[in-house]
């Protein structure tokens, strides 16, 4: 509540001119505008209850601040405005220093003046009565309809403790009622009769024996009483907020920086130091600040230093406050200064020094160049391997490959299976056999050439395949028709593949659709190494066809001028190097 204050000597006001009031009370412009038009006849006295709000239909009163206990009520006069004396009636009555509205109605809104006569002068005070209309419908979104006009009284209740709530102005009702008033309490629209045993209504007050979180909220007390045969009432509200228990420590503390925390700073850039303090609930002032070399920032003549509150986090009255120290253009000379984060309330003081360390600079240019070189080198190596993969594998085999002739007792390196009387037969006899035997030094078995006349075809075929290290299947459109020699060779090779003592190599001389493959080929195709003949481009010994085929065949070192092992390795290396150069 605010009040209007006018102090003007009566004699000066009567002799001189009209007196104008100072700044108006913001919530009662009506009375201010009215009093501005009046000629001063009084000493205007401060009114502690300058504005009174009342809900239409409820009882209220205004008190004259001029009256004292030793004064006579006969010298006190009430006016509506300044000219209309108020006479007692059934609804408005005067008793000593109070003017009662029993109850207040809409037409009661306005300004009321009380005058106290003395031997030398009159003293006056003005009060404003604002009558709030009672709503006909409950406000939308409200749990229940509590149309109230008076201010919400704030009350704090410590958790796990007992708390007593008194209904405001209840004693006034006791003084003016004909009998003891009746008080009804509600919490969030729930009457006191439905509360638990941890809180109860005791006469006109509420006793909370053990405060818990869900006891917070708005409490409403309704006071009903009889006065001069009239049934009157008024309503008051209290907002109860739970706070931390009183038996907990109330000294403040610095949460950040911790004793181990180190702030990383970069010379030439702005540095931000964060101070976070914990303030337990206390109904008193608190403070948090940064100090540099023992001085607060307002004592430093250094514009580069500034601080500001970043955030406040509250829970049950306990606050965590963050304050940031900003140092613009941080320099090496700032490292030698002392930076302290401090907190204080009426229970104690705590401070902690911040540790600063220059952040290690990363040579970005050198790092970028190094990473670029590594990336380019990796890409070049990857491209080199992609282009010369076969040559590198051949070079590795020539040095570290194992000659299978030393690990098994087989007679042939390669058994060639092909369709007779076809283009594949010409390719085998004129090209494939010649290169394998003459140029690469493999022992090759061809059934039509190496079998003895008069023998059993099936037995000799199975014997030749079993005595070979590789089965090369030359695939063409006429290969492996049912009942042919090629089919028998293929079946023997598939059986050897399943036994783990033979490897199959598929040389695709001409393209054949997968639908035309015989069943044995479809069974073994996942394990087959496929080498495709490309025609004229594959005839040269440096073509990819011969390189891939050599990778699938047993290890053989190219013939050299010397017969020992070292000469074989040297010849293999020279040959592979020649392939690389191409």
Describe the protein.
This protein is an alpha/beta fold. The chain folds into 4 domains: 10-132, Immunoglobulins (Immunoglobulin-like), CATH 2.60.40; 153-243, Immunoglobulin-like (Sandwich), CATH 2.60.40.10; 253-358, Immunoglobulin-like; 402-554, Toll/interleukin-1 receptor homology (TIR) domain (Rossmann fold), CATH 3.40.50. It is 23% helix and 32% strand. The protein is built from 12 helices and 32 strands. Strands 1, 2, 4, 5, 8 and 9 form a 6-stranded mixed sheet that branches. A 5-stranded mixed sheet has the order 10-17-16-12-13, covered by helices on one side. A 5-stranded parallel sheet has the order 29-28-30-31-32, with helices on both faces. A hairpin with a 4-residue loop joins strand 8 (110-117) and strand 9. Helix 5 packs parallel to helix 11 (544-552), helix 5 runs antiparallel to helix 12 (565-581) and helix 8 packs parallel to helix 9. The model is unreliable at 1-27 and 559-582 (pLDDT under 50).
Topology:
Elements (H helix, E strand, L loop, with lengths): L9 H6 L13 H8 L6 E2 L6 E5 L4 E4 L12 E5 L3 E2 L6 E4 L2 E4 L8 E8 L4 E11 L20 E6 L4 E4 L3 H7 L5 E6 L2 E2 L7 E4 L2 E4 L8 E11 L2 E14 L9 E4 L5 E4 L5 E9 L7 E6 L2 E2 L8 E11 L2 E10 L11 E7 L2 E6 L1 E4 L5 H24 L1 H12 L11 E6 L5 H17 L4 E2 L1 H4 L6 H10 L1 E8 L9 H15 L3 E6 L10 H6 L4 E4 L11 H9 L12 H17 L1
Parallel strand pairs: 1-9, 2-9, 10-17, 19-27, 28-29, 28-30, 30-31, 31-32
Antiparallel strand pairs: 3-7, 4-5, 4-8, 6-7, 8-9, 11-15, 12-13, 12-16, 14-15, 16-17, 18-20, 20-24, 21-22, 21-25, 23-24, 25-26
Helix pairs in contact: 5-11, 5-12, 8-9
């Amino acid at each position: 509540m605010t009040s209007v204050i006018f102090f003007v000597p009566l004699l000066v006001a009567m002799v001189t001119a009209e007196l104008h009031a100072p700044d108006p009370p913001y919530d009662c412009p009506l009375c201010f505008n009215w009093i501005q038009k009046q000629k001063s006849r009084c000493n205007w006295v401060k009114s502690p209850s300058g504005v009174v709000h009342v809900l239409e239909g409820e009882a209220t009163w205004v008190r004259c601040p001029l009256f004292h206990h030793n004064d006579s009520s006969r010298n006190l006069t009430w006016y509506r405005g300044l000219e209309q004396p108020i006479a007692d009636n059934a609804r408005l009555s005067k008793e000593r220093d109070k003017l009662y509205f029993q109850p207040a109605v809409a037409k009661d809104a306005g300004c009321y003046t009380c005058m106290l006569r003395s031997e030398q002068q009159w003293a006056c005070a003005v009060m404003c009565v604002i009558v709030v209309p009672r709503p006909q419908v409950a406000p939308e979104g409200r749990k229940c309809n509590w149309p109230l006009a008076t201010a919400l009284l704030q009350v704090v209740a410590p958790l796990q403790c007992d708390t007593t709530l008194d209904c405001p102005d209840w004693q006034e009702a006791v003084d003016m009622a004909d009998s003891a008033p009746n008080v009804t309490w509600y919490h969030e629209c729930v009457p006191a009769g439905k509360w638990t045993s941890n809180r109860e209504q005791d006469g006109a007050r509420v006793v909370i024996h053990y405060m818990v979180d869900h006891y917070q909220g708005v409490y409403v007390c309704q006071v009903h009483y009889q006065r001069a045969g009239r049934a009157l009432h008024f309503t008051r509200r209290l907002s109860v907020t739970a706070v931390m228990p009183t038996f907990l420590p109330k000294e403040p503390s610095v949460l950040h920086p911790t004793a181990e925390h180190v702030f990383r700073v970069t010379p030439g850039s702005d540095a931000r130091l964060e101070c976070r303090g914990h303030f337990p609930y206390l109904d008193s002032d608190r403070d948090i600040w940064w100090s540099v070399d023992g001085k607060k920032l307002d004592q430093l003549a250094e514009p580069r230093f500034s601080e500001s509150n970043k955030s406040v986090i509250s829970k049950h009255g306990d606050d965590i406050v963050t304050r940031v120290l900003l140092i613009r253009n941080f320099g090496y000379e700032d490292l030698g200064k002392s930076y302290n984060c401090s907190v204080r309330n009426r229970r104690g003081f705590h401070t902690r020094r911040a540790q600063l360390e220059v952040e290690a600079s990363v040579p970005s240019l050198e790092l970028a160049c190094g990473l670029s070189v590594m990336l380019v080198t990796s890409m070049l190596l990857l491209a080199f391997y992609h282009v010369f993969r076969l040559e590198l594998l051949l070079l590795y085999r020539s040095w570290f490959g194992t000659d299978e002739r030393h690990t098994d007792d087989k007679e042939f390196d390669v058994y060639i299976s092909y369709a007779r009387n076809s283009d594949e037969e010409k390719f085998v006899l004129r090209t494939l056999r010649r290169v394998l035997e003459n140029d690469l030094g493999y022992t090759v078995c061809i059934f039509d050439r190496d079998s003895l006349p008069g023998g059993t075809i099936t037995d000799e075929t199975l014997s030749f395949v079993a005595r070979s290290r590789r089965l090369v299947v030359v695939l063409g459109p006429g290969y492996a028709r049912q009942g042919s020699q090629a089919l028998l060779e293929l079946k023997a090779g598939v059986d050897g593949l399943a036994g783990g003592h033979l490897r199959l190599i598929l040389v695709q001389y001409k393209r054949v659709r997968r639908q035309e493959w015989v069943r044995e080929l479809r069974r073994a195709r996942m394990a087959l190494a496929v080498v495709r003949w490309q025609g004229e481009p594959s005839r040269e010994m440096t073509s990819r066809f011969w390189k891939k085929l050599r990778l699938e065949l047993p290890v053989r070192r190219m013939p050299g001028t010397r017969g020992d092992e070292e000469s074989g390795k040297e010849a293999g290396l020279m040959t592979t190097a020649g392939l690389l150069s191409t």
